[in-house]
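Marked as duplicate of an earlier ticket. Keeping the data here for the record.
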Amino acid sequence: MNPEFYDLVERAIDVAFEEDKYLFRCYNYLQSAKTTRKQAREFIDSATANSVKALINDLEEYIKGGNKQLKEAYGHLGKPKARKIRSYLQGVLDDASRYEHDRRPGRKKRTK
């Protein structure tokens, strides 16, 4: 996977937190870049994806009323914004997994 993609994901996280904008669509980017299944799998297993998962878990704990440290870290967001960011970040990971799944070799299932 090219480093530009990882930079885009990191930038999307920053924009979501700072500017409250959710513009990056992972699936669309992977499609337009003609990313291979192997490259998508590399991202899913990467340190960047793992840090996104950790961030999602932290936001989840904060929303549930987590410990004092999480309240200090994410208290400025407010719970509605934290929920929105959490679902956006989860969507990025889900898009990568869906793309990787869609790129499996073999025949495509027909739609009826």
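See parent ticket for discussion. Residues 79-102 form the longest helix (24 residues).
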